[in-house]
Design a protein that fits this description.
4 helices; 204 residues; 44% strand; outer membrane lipoprotein receptor (LolB), chain A; twelve-stranded antiparallel beta sheet; alpha+beta
Length: 204
């Protein structure tokens, strides 16, 4: 993991890198009206790509991502800023599977466990596709804070939306340890046509 991470000494540098082009895009901060109840089957399938910054106990890492969300199948590929693949992580009805940059395929009991091993930090992947689209998880405690962010499952989620279509532009997640920031350069609806993770074909 250390080979792909670009350690950032100053958090301000992360902010500068991740927001340098935001003035070119009209965005709005999500308010209480932009959140609603939802389940995995109610969320929209999408393809997306962008940039990812993670601060873990004061240490920053930066990478690029490609993320495809197909309801029950979630696939995210993480690349270094130079374009080299760190790995691919996928979750479907059969569990969680990943492939590292050496082509080794592994499985784990949870997304948190596998992303910790692959990326060096635990992604809140179980609900991330719902949160970025403005859904809180039904049947779980949640709270909309005065600034329009969502508090749920130990995370606080802030969303900045494109004014033209309300697609996510910037999503920030904070808990007691991590600060995760996703900047979406591309986000588009797609058809749901994948019943399971493609990595399972390699595994067999």
């Amino acid at each position: 993991m250390q080979q792909w991470c670009q350690k950032i000494g100053l958090i301000g540098l992360t902010t500068l890198i991740m927001t340098g082009c935001n003035h070119l895009t009209a965005v709005k901060r999500a308010t209480e009206a932009d959140w609603r109840a939802g389940t995995p089957t109610e969320t929209q399938a999408f393809d997306s790509s962008g940039r990812l910054a993670v601060v873990d106990e004061g240490k920053g890492s930066y990478a690029n991502f490609n993320w495809q969300s197909l309801s029950q199948v979630q696939t995210i590929e993480v690349n270094t800023p130079l374009g080299n693949s760190v790995g691919v992580l996928c979750r479907d009805q059969y569990g969680v599977i990943a492939e590292d940059n050496h082509g080794q395929i592994t499985t784990a009991a949870s997304v948190e466990e596998l992303s910790q091993n692959l990326l060096g930090f635990a992604l809140p992947f179980d609900h991330l596709n719902q949160w970025v689209q403005g859904y809180w998880i039904t049947n779980q405690p949640h709270k909309i804070l005065p600034d329009g962010s969502l508090q749920q499952s130990g995370w606080i989620i802030h969303r900045d939306l494109l004014k033209e279509n309300h697609y996510p532009r910037i999503v920030k997640l904070n808990n007691q340890r991590f600060e995760i920031k996703l900047v979406f350069d591309q986000f588009s609806p797609t058809a749901e046509n994948t019943p399971q993770c493609e990595l399972r074909q390699k595994q067999s």
